[in-house]
Amino acid sequence: MKYIISIIGIILFCTSSFAKILDQAIVIIEDDVITQNEYQQKLKFVMNNYRINNQPIPNDLEAFRKQVLDHMINTRLQINYARRNGLEVKEWMIDNAMEDMAQKNKVTLSEYRESLINKGIDYNAYRDVIKEEIITRQVQRRVVSEKIKVSKKEIEDFIKHQSHVFKENNKYKISNILISLTETPSISEKNEAVKKIKMIKNKFSNGESFSSLAKNYSDSGNAMTGGDLGWRKLSEIPKIFLKELETLKKGSVSEIIETLNGYYICYLEDKKEITNINIQEVKARHVLIKRTAIVSDKKAKEKLIELKIRIENGESFSDVARAHSDDTMSAASGGILEWTNPGSFVPAFEDKVTSLPLNKISEPFTTQFGWHILEVLGRRDQDNTEIIMQNLARQYITSSRTREVIDAWFIELKEQNFIKYVSENNKKNQRNINLKKRDLKNTNSWDPFSE
After folding, report:
1. Which of 37, 140, 374, 433 has the smallest count of CB within 10 Å of its CB?
2. CATH code at 256?
3. Is pTM, for the whole model, over 0.85?
4. What mean pLDDT do residues 336-345 have?
């Protein structure tokens, strides 16, 4: 019997070791890896989506495959950033996103799930993609909130000098492609980038779709969605595209736009008019527990779980907030934040305020200020022209800077992290990217698709 158990143990060990050899790392990101199996699964998922949506696979397969891997690296960098900064995605958040998609398709969640499975989509892989999208959205919102500050003076100047924006209710469906540059590019690098973006424009003129070109060649963070920026009000369009958009016809591509990040082109797919602008104010209350040298993340969360249970068992929310909340301004009034306009809170808090049903206490969640529990007491439509104009001005100024800020942040993030392409069969060709932490010279990139 002992002999049989030993044999089984050896077989299991060998099987496990063999599986690890087969599933080798192809990219190392700090203390994380992307494996060959992960990459193949992602590639299969993306190509399956092309098939389901009746989209042709891009002609340049090598560029397409590299774009998928680059997207995986960008996503992994953001996931690691989220983990370091306490940003979490709960299962209920994914469930809510799935519910929204089911409603848009006018089916129940179970029917939507069945339709995905019937199309050959791995449902768990699909949920993982949704989770990644939620995480990256949270990360980018935090980056924007930290790096873009809009002053009262800027808002006043915008209203004074660009009031025409409030009269123009056009919405634009736009996409972009970026060919990026390093922080200190050489003349030859610039020339190569210009040559590449001109080549892309020529391909578009010869009939290739802008979406496919973005997926194949763009260095922007939205490349894998075809460079799509969605429907945007004039106030939400990146400032770098505004001048070109004034003369751009539907279905055409802009001239080359030079920025510090690199060279952009913008595609105007469609445009339409909207007639009404509404603003919905929210009244909420919360309890905040701040992180300190003594109070860790875990302790803050555990304390809020305990306080939530006490409130649900009949204790007054107001009394709990007065006694325990670290937000001294609102604690005095029982945690109440009064009526507030959209966009007034930091992104993580704004998401909760927007999605939480009335009179339901949230699960503990984190922002840069600490841990919170939240209850939405009411929502109302408010026809206040001055507030609307101020809010739209703030959104415009923020949105006009967002794309450049995010693209610059991606460059910065890559330079701050150690990234290495690995090949067991081709050790000579590898690339290390760590301009700030390690003073290493770039070598030729290993191409994981040529082997």
Report:
1. 37
2. 3.10.50.40
3. no
4. 84
